[in-house]
Structures are given as C-alpha cells and as structure tokens.
C-alpha cells in the first residue's frame, strides 16, 4: 500500500467514525458541538456534546480491534464507574452495535461521559516542559492514586502483565526474570496508562480507563515518572511524591516494567527517552 492509498484509507476511516459519532448522538439524544478528536490510530473518535438538559458531556465511539484486545478492555471505561474517590469522568450511557460492512463481525461502542474540566496537561504522553500545576493538583493526584490502589484488586485477565513485563525486559535488557518474582509482589488496581495526556489540569481529572487492571503496586507512579524523564524537575517531583511506593521491591519491578514497555514504543518522544530508560533499567536490575 503506497502513501496515497494509506491517506485514502485514513480519510475513509475518519468519515466513517464521523458517521458513527452522529449515530451515537442520535441514539443517546445528545447534540454534538465543537471539533472531533481522533486518536492517532483512528481507532476512536470523540466530540463535546450537550444533553437535552444542556449538561456538557463527552461523546465517544470506538471500533473493536482484535489487535488491541486484551490490552484495551472493551468495558474499561464503564467498569471504572465503580472506583470511588478518584476524579474521573463517569460514563452515563453506553451501547454496542454492529460495525456493518465497514468492519464485518466487529462492534462499535458509544459512550456518553462527563466532560473533564480544564484540558489535558499535555497533548502528548511525554512531558517536555513545566506543566505549571498548582500544589493542590499534586495533592489531589497523590490521593487519587492511593484511592485507586485501595480499590479491590481486579481478577487476573487475558492480559498477563507479569508475562508482558518479563518479555519486554528480556527483549530490551537481555535478562530473564524469574516468574516467582511476580508471585511475591504486592498487586493493586491501577490505571496502567497514567501519562500526561490522560491527566487534566489545573483541576485534576484522570481520563481514558480502557486499560485499568491489576498491576504491581506503584505501576501508575512508575508510568508517570518515565513519562516525565525529559523534564527532570518534574521527574524528580513525581519520584519524590511517590517515593514511599517506588522505593519498595514491588515499586522497583514496576519501574523496570514501565521502562521496558516504553522502550517498545517508537515515536520520536519515546526515542528521546531511550538513554534515560536504559540507564534506569540497568540500575534497577542491579537492585533486584
């Protein structure tokens, strides 16, 4: 497929997602407004909307994609409604329907959820500059991460995070971890994708709950730390804020797992992170 064919396929997907958004708006009785936001891979699309009562909401549609399951949980945003004391959008309406001829045998999900206050701290997952967040935001984040970790630990799912961490560490550091290591860890409920594009400010809201699941304690703090390494002052603040969990045996495994995971990604930002992640990983391996 040449570049022209790719552009045509992307445009076809964009138009199809626009159609699905309108179908979702009609189904849920909301009126869309503003511009559509597409994920980089054109898997989902969202747009601000208003309910019949004038309440601002976010309308989202996503196409089922076997390449994303089980990493992304089809019902992740909805099941996250049960998590208490964490500022995040609540999903108020949802429904699934067949994708039709565009993607035979696959589903579309539509969701109407709270519109997060403020804006994403960063348009990209990796931070480059001072986010300029107030102290209250950091306090709220600390409390939110603790509340999430206190939520009942989800049952193991088809996405075996321990096996994934072992595979990534072996691929990028040439070290085979003992599977028994993971049996000794503390496991908690975690967002597992707590980067800067999934955090709103200056009033905290944590977005995108498709991948929340059980993870080694400290995995969310480790993710945010690795996503901050290109801005050392913020990385230090994250490290200091969550030192009590990151400076544990489980926290070090969480950091190692996230560092190895980020080394699998190939965006320009992640390539800039490579030397920092390799250095972090080598240090952690000596401490295991």
Question: Could you list some keywords that capture this structure?
Answer:
288 residues; Phosphorylase Kinase, domain 1; alpha+beta; globular; 10 helices; 11 strands; 17% strand
Series of secondary-structure elements, N-terminal to C-terminal: HEEEEHEEEHHHEEEEHHHHH
CATH superfamily heading of the largest domain: Aminoglycoside phosphotransferase (APH), C-terminal lobe
Quaternary organization: single chain
> What do we call the CATH topology of the largest domain?
Aminoglycoside 3'-phosphotransferase, Chain: A, domain 2
* Rg: 20 Å
Shape from CA axes? Answer: globular
* Number of distinct helices: 10
Helix content: 40-55%
Task: Show unreliable segments.
Answer: none
Main β-sheet, in a few words?
A: 6 strands, antiparallel
CATH architecture call of the largest domain = Alpha-Beta Complex
**Structural class by SSE content:** alpha+beta
Mean pLDDT over the full residue set: 95
CATH class of the largest domain: Alpha Beta
- Percent of sequence in beta strands: 15-25%
Query: What's the β-strand tally?
Result: 11
Q: What is the rounded distance between the termini?
A: 46 Å
Counting structural domains, the number is 2
């Amino acid at each position: 497929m040449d570049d022209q064919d790719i552009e045509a396929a992307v445009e076809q997907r964009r138009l199809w997602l626009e159609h699905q958004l309108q179908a979702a708006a009609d189904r849920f009785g909301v009126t869309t407004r503003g511009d559509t936001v597409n994920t980089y891979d054109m898997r989902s699309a969202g747009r601000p909307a208003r309910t019949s009562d004038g309440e601002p909401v976010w309308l989202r549609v996503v196409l089922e994609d076997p390449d994303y399951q089980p990493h992304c949980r089809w019902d992740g945003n909805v099941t996250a409604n049960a998590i208490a004391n964490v500022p995040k959008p609540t999903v108020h309406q949802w429904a699934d329907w067949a994708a039709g001829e565009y993607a035979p045998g696959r589903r579309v999900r539509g969701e109407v959820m709270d519109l997060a206050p403020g804006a994403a701290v960063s348009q990209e997952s990796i931070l480059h500059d001072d986010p300029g967040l107030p102290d209250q935001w950091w306090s709220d984040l600390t409390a939110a991460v603790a509340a999430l970790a206190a939520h009942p630990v989800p049952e193991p799912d088809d996405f075996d995070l321990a096996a994934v961490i072992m595979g990534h560490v072996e691929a990028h550091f040439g070290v085979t971890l003992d599977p028994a290591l993971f049996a000794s860890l503390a496991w908690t409920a975690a967002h597992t994708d707590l980067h800067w594009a999934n955090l709103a400010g200056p009033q905290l809201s944590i977005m995108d709950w498709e991948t929340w699941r059980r993870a080694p304690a400290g995995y969310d703090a480790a993710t945010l730390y690795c996503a901050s390494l290109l801005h050392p002052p913020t990385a230090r603040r994250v490290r200091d804020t969550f030192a009590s969990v990151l400076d544990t045996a489980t926290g070090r495994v969480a950091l190692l797992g996230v560092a190895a995971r980020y080394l699998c990604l190939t965006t320009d930002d992640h390539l800039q992170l490579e030397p920092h992640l390799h250095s972090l990983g080598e240090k952690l391996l000596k401490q295991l």
